[in-house]
Amino acid sequence: MSCSALPPSSLLQLIWLASPALPVGGFSYSEGLETAVERAGVSGEQPAANWLADQLHLSLARGDLAVLAQAIPAWRNANIARVKQLNDWVLQTRETSEMRLQAEQMGRSLVEWLRNHDGADANAIAACAALPPTYPVTFALAAAQTAAPVRDCLLTYAFGWAENMMQAALKSVPMGQSAGQRILARLSREIPAAVEQALHLPDADRQAFSPMLAILSAQHETQYSRLFRS
After folding, report:
1. pTM across the whole model
2. What is the pLDDT of residues 56-66, one digit of tens each?
3. CA–CA separation, 44 vs 22, rounded Å?
4. pLDDT per residue as tens digits for the range 169-181
5. Are 182 and 49 in contact (CB under 8 A)?
6. What are the structural domains, with CATH classification, of the chain?
7. What backbone torsions phi and psi does residue 178 show, to the nearest 5 degrees?
């Protein structure tokens, strides 16, 4: 099923979840990109595009997107034990304090958004809040409330990530808007393959091993001048 076959309400919900205006604080994180600009040679449009494409395939597809692929059906089946297992995995595999802070803060903020959202399942929200929630698992709950197929939900999450990271690149590289749009276009072309990888990734192959990303995130904690929280 494609997005065009979705009920209009579900399609709009996915667009809403992908929006940079969603009040979860995603705009305040660069996920190591700011330090990569200073220390890893990400000095222009092409290096930034390559960096983000690598992050998409090596980190996001094998980590957060793979979690989403399992967490959405778990929420829909009210399998809270499975949800907790996935949430614990996210917490345990965040390799720096900044990465964990981001996952927890954005998770809490999305729970608050859901509490004020018409039609949300109050029992599921309460179960999510008690985890404590991480962003991928809470996003899975929000997406599970729609009639969208899991694949479309993963496309939504990935595009929201790509747009936030493109905006971070505009500020930290820095670049102009046209360069940012070209980067977003490249990521959009590569997102479907990353989503397919995540959909077919078994639990044993899910991983968050991105050593350079972890090193740069740790260095960001003491970076002298910075714009972002991570």
Report:
1. 0.91
2. 999 999 999 99
3. 28
4. 998 888 899 999 9
5. yes
6. 34-220 (1.10.4190.10)
7. -65, -40
